[in-house]
């Protein structure tokens, strides 16, 4: 347990970012939430610098970014050709969640969030069971039966 230097709350060590240099416990003095909020405030105050730096990074790493994008497209394209029904079902759920036709629910087994959409039947694109990463992996690894929530 460690006390955050900003908000003053006592939290577990995994609530703090790693800081191997200069720290006895190897963690930042501020919790992750406070650190993220401070970075967001700094970016808002220094918007022009942030934009210029983003452009600088893009133009100096342009070829590397394009190469990574080509590799990603190649992989996704391969998947789309091999399993078009799966890809279509995933995209349908992503879009439905985005526009609000489907509400992302907690895991139907343990109730934790965030949950992933599990398709028991890919032909029924919008019929999904919401499972956390642990239970979703369990269903795909150990059970061939569909999950009903």
Can you describe what's shown?
The chain is α+β, with helices and mostly antiparallel strands. The chain has five helices and six strands, in the order ββββααααββα. The strands form three sheets. A two-stranded antiparallel sheet has the order 1-2. It has a two-stranded antiparallel sheet with strand order 3-4. The longest helix has 21 residues, at 62-82.
Write the layout of secondary structure elements.
Elements: E1 2-3, E2 10-11, E3 16-18, E4 27-31, H1 32-45, H2 47-60, H3 62-82, H4 84-99, E5 116-118, E6 129-131, H5 133-142
Antiparallel strand pairs: 1-2, 3-4, 5-6
Report the structural category: alpha+beta
Q: Would you count the extended β strands for me?
A: 6
Distance between the termini: 36 Å
Helical residues, percent: 40-55%
- The helix/strand series, from N terminus to C terminus, equals EEEEHHHHEEH
* Number of alpha- plus pi-helical segments: 5
Q: Average pLDDT value?
A: 86
Sheet with the most strands: spatial strand order: 1-2
* Beta strand %: 5-15%
Structure described in brief:
The protein is of the alpha+beta class and 149 residues long. Helices cover 50% and strands 12% of the residues. A hairpin with a 6-residue loop joins β1 and β2.
Features:
2 domains, two-stranded antiparallel ribbon, 50% helix
């Amino acid at each position: 347990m460690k006390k955050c230097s900003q908000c003053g709350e006592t939290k577990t060590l995994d609530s703090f970012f790693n800081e191997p240099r200069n720290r006895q416990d190897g963690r930042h003095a501020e919790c992750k939430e406070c650190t993220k909020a401070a970075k967001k405030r700094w970016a808002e105050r220094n918007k022009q610098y942030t934009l210029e730096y983003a452009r600088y990074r893009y133009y100096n790493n342009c070829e590397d970014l394009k190469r990574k994008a080509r590799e990603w497209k190649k992989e996704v394209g391969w998947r789309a050709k091999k399993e078009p029904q799966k890809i279509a079902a995933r995209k349908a759920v992503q879009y439905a969640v985005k526009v609000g036709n489907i509400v992302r629910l907690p895991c139907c087994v343990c109730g934790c969030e965030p949950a992933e959409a599990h398709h028991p039947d890919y032909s029924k694109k919008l019929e999904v069971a919401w499972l956390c990463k642990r239970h979703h992996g369990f269903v795909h690894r150990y059970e061939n039966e569909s999950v009903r929530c």
